[in-house]
Amino acid sequence: MTLDTDDEILQDFLVEAEEILEGLNEQLVELENSPKDSDLLNSIFRGFHTIKGGAGFLSLEAMVNLCHKSEDLFNLLRQGERTVDAEMMDTFLKVLDILNTMFDEIKAAQYPSPADPEIINQLSIYIEGTNASSAPPVVEQVEEPVAPPPPSEKPPLASAPAGDDDITDDEFEALLNQLHGDAAPGQTAEPPKKPEAQLKRPT
């Protein structure tokens, strides 16, 4: 399907688009040196917007799609939500080359071919990307203090089981006499060995 190059509206569009594309070429060169120039960003934005409007009226969808993505990105740039860098500038220059190719196709009465999907995807990444100023604030999570576990009750001391290990009152009395009174004169009684059995004191 071809375009009617004798159509007056198409001819007017070609004249206007050619002037805008020449202007965009110069403005993008300036943008490399002045990436934060608001007047320059606004002017480039209007250029893409105007071409998009004329292309849309003539149903030149491939040109509309490319200009629409470029317009959206420059809208973010002029609002300070994105910042121009070297990689982005390379993408803009590729966009301009594609638009010039589309323009030549239209002059030859051909509908423009769709832009390289990689370029459209790259523009979308810039549009949807986030930076430090636009990222949501990080909310610091404060851990709630954990209550210490209740003190464990100490198990009661187990009493020695009654049985053969217990000694009687008489045996306890005899042991005391042996320790304190039965030692030979001049001899020091050896300290008693700790009895293996638990002593049962008289009550």
Automatic annotation (TrEMBL):
Residue ranges with Basic and acidic residues bias: 191-203
Organism of derivation: marine sediment metagenome
Biased composition (Acidic residues): 163-173
Biological processes, Gene Ontology terms: phosphorelay signal transduction system
Entry-linked SUPFAM superfamilies: Histidine-containing phosphotransfer domain, HPT domain
Domain HPt: 2-106
Start and end residues of each stretch annotated as Disordered: 135-203
PANTHER family given in the database record: CHEMOTAXIS PROTEIN CHEA (PTHR43395:SF1), SENSOR HISTIDINE KINASE CHEA (PTHR43395)
Stated name of the protein: HPt domain-containing protein
One Pfam family in the UniProt entry: Hpt
Species lineage: unclassified sequences, metagenomes, ecological metagenomes
InterPro entries attached to this UniProt entry: Bact_Chemotaxis_CheA, HPT_dom_sf, Sig_transdc_His_kin_Hpt_dom
